Structure formats: C-alpha cells, structure tokens
Amino acid sequence: MAFYVVQFLTGLASAASLFLVASGLSIIFGVTRIVNFAHGAFYMIGAYIAFTLTDRFSGAFGFWGGIVVAAFAVALIGVLVEMVLLRRIYHVPELFQLLATFGLTLMVQDLVVLIWGPDDLVGRRAPGFKGAVDFFGQAIPSYDLFLIVLGPVVLGILWLLFQRTRWGVLVRAATQDRDMVAALGVNQKWLFTSVFAVGVFLAALGGALQIPRDAVHHAMDLRIIVEVFVVVVIGGLGSIVGAFVAAVLVSELNAFGILIFPKISIILVFLVMAVVLIVRPWGLFGKPEAAARRTPGLTVNPWRPLTQNERLGALAALIVAAALPLFAGNYALTVGSEIAIFVIFAVSLHFLMSVGGLASFGHAAYFGLGAYGIAFLAKMAGLPMIVCLLLGPLLGLMGAAVFGFFAVQLSGVYFAMLTLAFAQIVWSIAFQWVSVTGGDNGILGLWPEKWAASPSHFYWLALGVAALVTCGLRIAVFSPFGYALRATRDSLLRSEAVGINAKRMQWTAFVIAGTTAGIGGALFAYLKGSVFPDNLGISLSVDALVMVLLGGVETVSGAVIGAIVYKALNIWLVSQTDLSKLVLGAFIMLIVVVFPKGIVGTLEMLLQRRKPLAPPGPTILAKPIESAE
Amino acid sequence: MRARNYFVGAAFALLAGGMAQSAMAQDIKIGEINSYSLLPAFTEPYRKGWQLAVEEINAAGGINGKKLVVVSKDDSGKPADAQTAANELVSSEGVAMLAGTFLSNIGLAVSDFANQKKVFFLAAEPLTDAITWSKGNKYTFRLRPSNYMQAAMLVEAASKLPAKRWATIAPNYEYGQSAVAVFKKLMSEKRPDIQWVDEQWPPQGKIDAGPVVQAVAAANPEAILNVTFGADLVKLVREGNTRGLFKGREVVSFLTGEPEYLDPLKDETPEGWIVTGYPWYSIKTPEHDAFLKAYQAKYNDYPRLGSIVGYQTIKSAAAILAKANSTDPEKLIAAAEGLSVPSPLGEVTFRKIDHQSTLGAFVGKTALKDGKGVMVESAYKKGSDYLPGDAEVEKLRPKD
Amino acid sequence: MSVAPTLLAVEGLTKSYGGIHAVRGVSFELRAGEILALIGPNGAGKSTCFDMLNGQNRPDSGHVRLLGEEITGRKPREIWRLGVGRTFQITATFATMTVRENVQVALISHEQRLFNLVGSAARVAREEAGRLLELVGMGGYADRPCGELAYGDLKRLELAVALANQPKLLLMDEPTAGMAPRERIDLMRLTASIAREKSIGVLFTEHDMDVVFEHADRIIVLNRGTLIAEGSPEAVRSNPQVQAVYLGEGLVYDARHREGTPA
Fold it and tell me: Is-contact A548 A562, C-beta < 8 A?
C-alpha cells in the first residue's frame, strides 16, 4: 500500500513541473492565440541561467535566489522577443507565429551550446531538500514533496491573479473574446506583452526547478515541448485548471502505467490525448471555440488557374529543371531528387492547409508510411520497384483514411494536435517494434532497380512525379471538389446550408493529401535506400509546415517554392556549418517578419501591384491570389 | 565545382558564397560524417581526436608522401541527412573513403550507402551489432567495441556476483533492447540460476526517473542492469541515490565509465557500479602516455573516449590507405582485412571475418574521488577475447 | 389564387436552454407561394425557431414536416437537399471566391458533383449561375471577389445562392438587416416577385415593420417563445396582444405613411 501512495506522490511531483510549463503555454495561447513553439526554449534557457547562477552563488539564498532571478531574466528575454518579433506578426495567420517561434527555437538550440558548451551540466541539489523522507519503508525525495506543494500553490496564485486583479479579468476576457477586449479600449499591446512575460516566466521557472533533478543540456526543449503541448490540449486550451488536471492525469497514468506496461510511457501521452480529443474535442476543461469567425488574413482576391503565358512559364521552368543532368554532377542530381521529393511532400500538405484549411502537425506520418510501405513490399514481398511505387503509397492512404476520419471531426489547433498524436503513435510503433520495422535502425537495402538507379534517371523520375503531383493537385484545387472543399474552409455554415457534408470533403482531402505524401515517402525510400522512424518524425512534420508557410499558405502552389528554398538551404547549411540551426532559424524568422505572406505570396503581391506588367517568371508555378490587408 | 550548382534558377545569393576550399589534386581525402550539431558533447572530443591524428600523420610525411585531408560533415542526427552528406563527400569531394558516425542508425545508413555505391566505410562509434553482423557488408568496417563485446565484458564480471534477482533499465529503442537481450542471453548461459524480476523501458531522453526508480525498487532485485546514458542516466542516478535504490544492490552499467557519461555526474556519481569505460587518468602504457601528452598539449583538455575513437579512426584509415597505396575500394578492403595497427590502447586488428576491430574497453568500478566520478580497479579487456567463435560469426553475417 | 398544398407544417415545436423556454409549443403552417413573416420583440425566440426549421438546432419536442415528410432534427444539408434554401442574419458566403463561384458551389452541390476531382469547377453551371445572379440583379458583379462586396450586395448574393437548388421553401433570417432602407425595400420586392413567380414559400423574420407589412401574406407573432397571434397583416396589426407586446417600441404602424411606398 505504501508503495502505491509513494508512486502516486512521485507522479504528482512529475506533474508539478509539467504543469508549470504547460500553464504558461496555455495562458499565452488563450490570450494571444500564439502557439508558442519556443516555450520549450524558454524552459531550457531558464534551466541554463539558473544553473549558472546557482553555481556562482552558494548557500540557500544563492540557490533559491538564482532560480527566481533566472525565471525573471528569461521573462525579460520573453518580453524582448514579444516586442521585437511577435508584435509584428499578430495580424498574420496563426500558424505563422508558430513558424516564427520555431525559428527562435532552432536558434536557441545552437546558442546555448555556444554559450554554455556542449556538455551535460548537473546542477546543485536544492538546499534543505537533498534527502528523502521515509514513508513506511519507502523513500520520498523531499524535493518531490516541495514540488508537490508548489504545483497547487502556483495554481492558486494564478487563480487569484485571474480572479482578483483587473489584469486577470482582462486576461480572462481576452481568452474568451479578443475583439471584445480591443473594444474595451484596453491597450492590447501591453496586455499581450505582459501575458507573454508571465507565460515565459512560468516556463523558465519550470526549467530552473529541474536543476536538482535533471541534467541541463541543449535538447531539453524538444524533450518537453511536445509533452507540454499535449498536456495543454488535454486540459483544454487556455484553461489553467485543465492544464493542472491534465498534468496530473498524464503523470499518474505514466507512474502506474509502467508497472503494468513498462514500455508504455513512450506513447502514453499521445494515446491519452487521442482518446480525450475523440471523446471531448475541446479537451477536458476547454470550451468549444466560438463559431468559426473568418480566418484573419484570408485573401480577398480569388484564386484562378494559370493563364496561358503562366503555363508556358511553368513549363519552361520544368524544362530547365529537367535539363539539370546535362550540366550537373551526381551530388547535385541527388540533391535535386531530394528537393523534388520534398516538393511532393510539401504540396500534399499545402493542399490540405490552403484549400481545406486544415493544418496537420503530423503530416510526416503519411510520408513515412509510404516509405515503410515500400520497405515492406520490397523487402518482404520482394515486389519489383514499379509495383512497389504504385502500391507503397497505399499504406499512406490507409493511415490517412483511418486517422483522418477522427481528425476531421476537429478543427483548428485541436485538429493539429490530434494529427500530431497520431503521427507520434505511428512513429512510436516504428521506433519500438524492432522485429518488424527494425526500430530506429530502420530497414536497409531498398535501392532502386537498374532503370532508375543512376542519379540522372532517378532525378527525372522524382521530377516527373513531382510535376505530375503538383499539376494533379492544382487540377483538384480548381475542380468541383476543390471548390466545395474551399467552401467548407471559407464558411462552414454556408457550405452546410448548401448541402455540403464538410466532414466528408475534409476526410477526402485528408486521404488525398496523405496518399500524395505517401508517394513522396515512397520515392524517398528509394532515394535513400532505406527507411527510418525519422521519416515519420515530428521534425519532418515541422519541416513540411515550414515549407508550406514559407511558400505562402494563401497561394495555390506556393509550397513548391517553399520546399525548394527550404530544402536547398537546409542541405547547403548542414553541409557547410555545424551551426545550421542558428542560421536557418534566423532565416525563418526573417522571412516571417519581412514576408509574412510567404515567398510566393509576397511575389504575387508585388506582381499584383505592378500589373499589368506581371511577367510570369519561372519561379511562379503558383497562382495569384491577392490580398487586401 | 559545378556540382555545387544544385539549385539552378533560384535567387539565392547565399549559395555563391558556399565554395569550400578545394584540396590539391594529389591530396588524399577522407570524408568524415558525424552528429556534430545534435551531440556536441560526444562529437567535440571526437573531432579533437581525429584532428590530432591528421596533424600527426601529415607531420610524419602524410600517406605515402601525400597529404591527408579530412573533409568533415555534420549529419544533424538524421540518417537521411547523413546519406546526403555521404553522397556529397563521394560524388563531389571525391573522397577515398568514408569514416565516422556515432548513432547506430546513422552508421547503418552510411554503411548501406557504402555498400550500394561501393565505397569503403570505416564506422567509428556506432555500437549496434548489426553493422558488422546481420547487416554487415564487405565495404564496412567498425572500430569501437560493439554492443555484444561490451555486454560480454560486463557479463564476465556480473556473472561472478552472488545476486540472483536481476532487474533491467534500458532506453526503449533498438540499442537498449539489444543491449538487454545480449546481456540476458550471455548471463543466462553462465548463470542459469538467475531470475529477471523487472524490466523498465523509459523512452530515450525522456525518462520519468522517479516512477521508474520506484517501480524497480518495488520488484526488490539484488542487482540491476542499466543501459541508460546521458541526461537519462543523470536523472536515474539522482533519483536512485535519493530514494536509496542502489543501496545494497549491485549495479552493472553499459558505458557509464566513459568520461562523457561519468563526468557530468560529479559528486553524485554512484559508487561501486561495474561499468565499461575509459579511465584515461589511470592508464599507464607508453602508447597511451604519448597520446595523452599530445592531446593535452594541443587542447589543454583531457581526452574522452570519443577522442580515442576519433584519433584511432583516422590513424586506422591512414594505415589502410598507406597499405593499399591506392584509393580503389577493393584494394582498401584487401588492405584493411586483417590489418593490425597500433593504438593508444594497444594494437588493434581489423578482423577479416566480420570487419570488426579488436579495440577493447576498460571494465572497472565507479568511485568518487575529490567530488568527481572515476573508474577504479579497471582493467583493459581486449576486444578479441569477447567476440563469439568464427563459426557463430559466419552464421550471423550474410555472405558478401 | 387557388389553395396551394401545405408546404411546411410546424407542430408543437419546443426548445429550452437550462430551464428557460426559448420556444414553447409553436405550431403553424406555410403554403407554397405564401410569404409568411415571423415577428416578435428581441428574445422572443425567432432565431431559435428558425434554426430548428432548417436543422441547425434540434428541438426538444415537436415536429417539422416538409410536404408531409418529417424533417425534425435532420441535418441542414439534408434539409437543403429536400428543397429548402436559407439566408442568414449575418451573411455567410465564401469570401475567397468570386460572386459567380459562390453560386457555382451551390450548383455543384445541387448537381451532386461534389466529389468530381478532375473537372473544371469554373465550367460547371456557368450559365445557370449567371442567370441566378441576373435574377437578383448581381449580373454585373459576377467576376468580382466576394470579399469586396458591400453588405447589401452580399445579401443579394445569398439570395442567389439560396435559390440555386430550386427551392420550394426559402428561410430568410432577417434578410434586410444591416441594409439601407431603400435597399431593404428593393430586396424584399425582389424576393416576393421571385417567390410568387416560382411559387416558392417564404418564411422570414424581420424587424423592419415596413418590410413585414408590405410583403407578408400572413404574419405570425412570437413572444417569449409562444405564438401569440397569427393572421393577415391587418389582423395582426389590430391584435391588442400584439400591440401590447410592441407598445412603446413604436414598431407597429401603418406602412403606408411612408412616402413613396404604395400599398
């Protein structure tokens, strides 16, 4: 019995730190609608600064003072980030802010290594909380007890802050209705800044408090950020109490789950999230989002198919690309193939995002399933390459059909999170089911057959498929289906009122996007000659998002350019420097601030202004829509 | 140079600046790949090691009179990126061979690439047994003692312990799973009387140490096998110390004696764990002294195991290139098979049968000295003594 | 006018939210070609009632029948397929499409071509869309982006969209809200003439009594969720209960006093 009590308390202690970070994220999202990907980065900086301070200043005062000062210092950094970066982009679509904070996260990962060095740092134990308390023969670390108390205390303070202060009332009001606060004549700028500061403070405090238990290292952020997102979503976005309950729920399920299924913790949180979202689409304590208001920043000028001249321009660009083997070497061709494959991947997500209005955070799942489909067919069934290429993506199709069915029942951030959960579940299966998938060692030896083996042949294959897929999806955009799908995005109410079953349209779009991604994955498997769980991982899903947003989510085919630019830059940077994340992160942030419409979206805007000159350059595969701001 | 024009038609001024220094035609180039950005804690000492080796080799006249150049690339911790890098090194840098890698999956990806493109590959650090056995190929050699070898070394010591009730804690992925599997198999062969009472499989890098420690303690084992490392290990040790998990229990732990993993633990280093590792401070051989002195003189820092591996990778590669006196991969393989080269840890041989080197490891016990973790009672175990018999290896490895 | 068949029959419709009756036992009928106004003060339950008719909202009890077929609690899209067009109090249109495309989407749906992935939507029912736009006087705006339209034009566009499935019944929730007085009259006249010509039944809610009394064949009055009066405009106007409800609001007056408005 004592054991179960202690296990329960241990779970509570884990929940406390999770709650601190999650509550910060939840508050920020609730008010500013920013999906703050950099929350983990602030958590990490909090830990690093606290490490330095507690190491420098001895004694109890040095320790606790160091923790608090670190959290304040990071909150100050947060204020700076909010004022310099985020303020410029509140008006752009939600996902762009995610992109900006993602860029920030990349930079921070390299920066902490530059500042604090590459080694894991082990900080001091908390003075007065070094030992353990005996509980019927079971030891409970006293620091755990401290955390167990701290969690509810912070919850209480936050509650008082929100219930009893004018600031709190404003924050709650803004969480419910942003426009209303603006109408109240409140200085929204400073409300947002202060909320961001509080959220970041909590994240940094959560990080700083890890010092006595954890090692401080440069990958801490990614290790917590996904879990924190999950907790926030389970609890209900914007709900502090929800974040607390969800943190406790997840931690306790983990604490007891490992007694029965020791291998469960790797997917547990995602299973819980998937179940919660299916049963309660707005999380445990969340409220249904207000009736879909028009997405801010939506374009006003309608899409249209390419004109004759633009088609010729695109064709010319394709011909130029196809001529690459005439003057480029093997490496360039292989990189070209990789870029072409990522074009396929990016346009598939772009179709779902721009036409369907559904931003999937787990699109790599279908890319990876396509790749694993190839691996299974080629290695186990021994089928020829052409058959594999045709059948492999079907695994992506099946995955998309099953997961998509549940995912399209939700919308917005909840949709994103459910897709993320599904992707993580698939990833975990690939990662852990070593006997079938080879685990993280992957499946090797999937090289293309002779007819496609030479770099130039494979390049033509990849380029051809990419061109076909891009054209196919463009046709779909302008097909009756594409219009009906866009109708569900523009106005759910109206589309339903003209007989359109939105869920079925979205589900179909999800399956199309998943299958297309699977085609990309299938080619990728042959390009690399192997598949790994990486092919379905979060970072690949984020890559796809970045490519789409970089190209311009409001364009028809901006993802083509987004994929080319991002992938080429990425490959080049990784090849040239160990600090590729620093440069890439800065580049992404720059793009977001300077070209919030993405590269193609911005080009279109410029062309529109200079109409009727508008020469369709070779880079304009995508087609104009223009927006009035 | 033309190969760099991989992004035709794009308005990308950055690219133009991307010309790397090109080497002289008569230089011999080795293409080196590792997870520099993902795992700087391990790859920085490794890089210092191979840089020292390059310096020494060129100071001694290079390889048959030609200057050795190592072109190094980051793989950002992803197999796919490692292959892109390998491709760049082979296709556009024209390297004579590939070397490096840390993570097992990346090692395997590059090994598969090498096999496909018929390029010689010397894997430096990946531990997976697959790279020389189940997925071994004729183009791939591996330097560091494998998972199996480390397990065999630990089993030798562990089987002498009186403990009969064992629990395991390992990260839940291929490395952790196969480490536990090999350890259990070898252990059960030597000690049919032992019982496996609990196993914990925390996710790699995300251990929730409190509940794990608590769960293991509840099973009340007499001994524990640990395979976690890095930040997970730190958390596990801290929770275990506080909760008294290790009190009165034997712990056997993979790799924990390597400075990379032991040093961060500082004054929390648990005492008496049986570990594999690299006690650079207590190795008293002339070969090692020479290395240690040179390393400390150049970097004003002590070596980690990665330094040894990096150093020896390039030293071995140079020896292979020198013996083959050619960059033809077939000749390199012929030269490498059975080649013996000196190393700071004594002579190392690349076995013909499975292309595994006989580099060994130290087995010893952890101890606290001046608030720092050290390995004591350590002894060097030669790799050749901990590999299965030839007949078994033949069965494990596909025919070329 | 001969007696038309009963198009819509509502019987004992009830809905409550947390103990408060929003709509209580409302029953009425609507015949083909008839224009029926649903009026009542704010909070009388008009919108709730309306939403239950086209499936946005599910009644606690009661029945809604369309040409004798039970449609209670069915989804809006199913009810639309049975020939019920709808416009919203706050317009709902497809902002990223042109005016014509807005109508075309409705026509695509009507022609059951929603899952056609390869055709060109621009060519689907282009003439029909143009005709509908001409009908509501939007012909000249066909290629304008919908997002640029003035509010009055959006209302007319909604009407065109609502007519796309050749409805038997039009449900119009405050069709003239937010429009200038002149536009209101025009829009309702247009609606009335289309409805009479095609024998479409129209049920609309409205605050503007000018509009109501000019165009409605019949009026039903809702107060606090209950139907308190039903009848011709004259009968309703003289109903003392209605007068009491509207007393002080000054809303019930003879439309004829307004200049330029013929009886």
Answer: yes
